[in-house]
Amino acid sequence: MKLYSTKQIYKADQISIKKEEIVSNELMERAALQLFNWIHLRMQGAPVKIHLFCGIGNNGGDGIALARHLLDHGYNIAVYVVNYSEKRSKDFLINLDRLKDRKVWPNFMDSDDELPEINKDDIIVDGIFGIGLNRTPDTWVTKVIQHLNASQAFILSIDIPSGLFAERGTEDLNSVIRSNFVLSFQTPKLAFFLPESGRFIEQWEVLDIGLDPDYLMKTETDYELIGKNEVLMLYRPREKYAHKGTYGHSLIIGGSYGKIGAVCLTAKAALKVGSGLVTAFVPKIGYTILQTALPEIMVLTDSENEVLTSMQFELVPNVIGIGIGMGTSEKTITAFTKFLSSNKQPLVIDADALNIISNNKGLLEQIPEESILTPHPKELERLIGKWEDDFEKLAKVKKFSKKYKCIVVIKGAHTIVIKNEKGYVNTTGNPGMATAGSGDVLTGVITGLKAQGYTPLHAAIFGVYLHGKAGDIAVEKTGFQSLIASDLIENLGASFLDLFKIPEQPIVKQDNQ
Ligand SMILES: NC(=O)C1=CN([C@@H]2O[C@H](COP(=O)(O)OP(=O)(O)OC[C@H]3O[C@@H](n4cnc5c(N)ncnc54)[C@H](OP(=O)(O)O)[C@@H]3O)[C@@H](O)[C@H]2O)[C@@H](O)CC1
Ligand SMILES: Nc1ncnc2c1ncn2[C@@H]1O[C@H](COP(=O)(O)OP(=O)(O)O)[C@@H](O)[C@H]1O
Ligand SMILES: [K+]
To answer: What sequence ranges are listed for the domain YjeF N-terminal (predicted)?
Structure first.
């Protein structure tokens, strides 16, 4: 699913109005009707008090128009206009008049007004600011927002939580509505998926307000949301006459005393996603452990017992996953530096390999094109330096990816894969995966997919999706706390199978049964 920017949404809005020869308040009416239908379907006329807080722009206009529909259907409403500016939008005013025609006078709230009482069993509709927010709200508006947040009532936000910037960092996090549900028009906003801003959104859904499909289809976006539909297009079926050589050879380089387990996880994950062959290259101490834990893989060892001191081997793998549990001893740094200077194979670079590179940025020049880097937030900071906010982080990673011609997997709750100017935002995964070794599994998954012939970008996008899905399937059985990295591996098969599951159809009862 494409994630349109606010600029693109405003443009789609203008094109739709022109093409369909409608006036802009008709588009607002569509939006309001969609909001109303969504609410009415769930509330079925229940007499719960609904407080609608509306700004004076088009987000507020949506709220005012929604209030009219709720009123017409007998809902118990109270309407407030958060009067933060004199510049009321045309469509807001049209809808205000329509409400006044029904003898409803909103409560106009100004800076020194008392805040209304809200019961925790009430519902709040948040239409104060939409995507037009362009500066931090005034202190009194922030106080209104905090009052709503403190009420414990269910908050339904129109388009975006008020106070949240759609495309840049929010300076004052106290001025943001904490939404239980966001009904977002036409596209979810990128801010919904980033760690600093995503925490303000519990759930979201997109309402299609029929913006020009032609424009939407043709328009390229900077970000895409990756769900099942998107990865199904990447899936490569197994061929009937295939043999193990068809699906490539993954080499996993890593491990040190006390961290051989990490290599076990990576190597096993590579096998479990279908790599034809997997070899692990580890210090001697890992030999028995790996051969015992994973009879399916082959093991090569360094001459040293506890750390890697030379990364030389005869075999020619299709892809190398490197860095897992490797440590950063002097000898290993030297061996890795030497390895990079002669290696031509594409790499999946993780953990200590990333840390070594961060300490010697000159090594970045030696990474083969289209290599995949999989940093967690701390590793990313070491690699690209600090950032002001999530949006700056993304901009920095894009620049980095372009400069070093690599793919960066920004790991987190919504892992984002970046290649050049484009970002792919993952939708699977859960907090149960914040556990030791889950990143090692991801490295194995991406390496194993790359070995089979997936392009590096597809291996990264598909790998991140499958890894998260395995976590979502596993957590159903383990619960969040008990999920461990091995559970992810065990559920990779189920994660593939889930791609082809047909959603259960609702049972329709026939009259004569
Ligand atoms: N195509 C679509 O998807 C459709 C979108 N629709 C809806 O429109 C919404 C966008 O509406 P919008 O452009 O009127 O902006 P909105 O967010 O209501 O803000 C109002 C104005 O406030 C101002 N302002 C900004 N920050 C401020 C601050 N801190 N303190 C005080 N003032 C501040 C700023 O004006 P300024 O003062 O800068 O001139 C801004 O213009 C969108 O989210 C959706 O709900 C639907 O109607 C159907 C079609
Ligand atoms: N809250 C979360 N929601 C979804 N996925 C998560 C969450 N926390 C961590 N993960 C995933 O788990 C993995 C953790 O990787 P990493 O921090 O490298 O772990 P480790 O170093 O222990 O292997 C990443 O793929 C990340 O996206
Ligand atoms: K809003």
So the answer is: 9-217
Q: Tell me how far the alpha carbon of residue 58 lies from the centroid of ligand 1, in angstroms.
A: 5
Residue 130 marked ligand-binding: yes
Q: How far is CA 501 from the centre of its chain?
A: 23
**Separation of 183 CA from ligand 3 center, angstroms?**
9
Residues 258 and 155 in one domain: no
Whether ligand 2 lies within 6 angstroms of the CB of 411 is answered as: yes
From residue 186, give the alpha-carbon distance in Å to each of 89, 157, 213, 391: 21, 15, 10, 22
Would the annotation count 121 as a binding residue? no
- Same domain, residue pair 51 and 140: yes
Range 141-144 contact pairs with CB under 8 angstroms and sequence separation of 24 or more: 141/82, 141/84, 141/175, 142/172, 142/174, 142/175, 143/115, 144/53, 144/82, 144/109, 144/115
61 belongs to an annotated ligand binding site: yes
CA of 13 from ligand 1 middle (Å) equals 13
CA atoms in the 13 A half-sphere facing the CB of 217: 4
**352 in contact with ligand 2, CB cutoff 6 A:** no
Nearest to 473 by CA among 491, 458, 454, 446: 491
- Domain-embedded: residue 147: yes
- Verify that 343 and 481 share a domain, yes or no: yes
* Mean pLDDT estimate for the chain: 95
Say if 221 falls within a structural domain.
no
Same domain assignment for residues 127 and 254:
no
Segment 16-70, tens digit of pLDDT: 988 888 888 899 999 999 999 999 999 999 999 999 999 999 999 999 999 999 9
Q: Which CATH number do you get for residue 21?
A: 3.40.50.10260
Give the domain CATH number at 416.
3.40.1190.20
Sequence-distant (≥ 6) Cβ neighbours of residue 236 within 8 angstroms: 452, 453, 454
Q: Give me the domain span that covers residue 405.
A: 244-499
Ligand at minimal distance from the CA of 485 is 2
ipTM field: 0.94
